[in-house]
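input
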Amino acid sequence: MSVERITRQCTIDVGSGFRRRVENGDLCLFSEGRTVWIALYESQFREPERSVNELYAPTVEPEEEWESRQAGRFARGYLVREVEKGRTVWTLTTLTASSRHLALASFTFVSEGHLDWAVRSWDSLRLGRR
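output
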């Protein structure tokens, strides 16, 4: 297990072999063919579902969408496929909220086979105390 600390209380497990950098306050984790960007905010609302739904707005027709409810946490995400310079690039864009935090995370990868990795990594996102 390769848990990456986002803040003192927030973590994510993307697997091993990732390098990290912080850019404009956002965390970037990257490895060959895979990149994760995570921005963490204080929730505007104390209801996780409302925090996510206020911001959730795919800008293109998603290939697939997900929704997850767990105790004290709500998340939605969508997958888009783009072709850049003849190469397919996949991005899973996610919003995850607890009563105190909201995380915007995007998982970009070039192999469709990495979709399971992206969803598992997103599911491992822990936003700390409720």
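quick obs: The mean pLDDT is 92.
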